[in-house]
Amino acid sequence: MRGKLLTLAGTAALLLTTAGGAQAHSSNDWRPALSYGTTEHERWASGWVGGSTQRADGGAHIKWTGTKVGVQAWTRDHARDGYCAVTQIRYHVKDGGKWADHWHYRSPAVDCTDGNDGIVAQWYGSRKPIKDVQARVCLGNASGTPVRDQCHPWD
Description:
By secondary structure, the chain is mainly beta.
């Protein structure tokens, strides 16, 4: 029994690592914000994923000046298919004077309500210098982990 539990735990850890990577909120890269004021740059990233029986759409409003970044994400679950709609962002962060050589991930908007008007998450502002912010929408689970191969390309 103990061997089966260890195997199950190891498999779950592998799946979580390959499906979505570490969630950025656990590394303290962002802080909640009521809004994100005037910046030098802004852009919107959006997309949809799914087909006739599974569908999600979402995106993010990204604002920045230099490496100070604000993000507000939204997402909408369209079907009663057992999946949630997940908007995921990825980015590079500068920590200890060096830019990370790997992506950091966060899922700031998750909607599991099957066909309502979706959700708009609050704004998040960067605590550390951040660059290369991209967003995508995926089918995923309630914790914000995307289902492998069920995502719109990064935008």
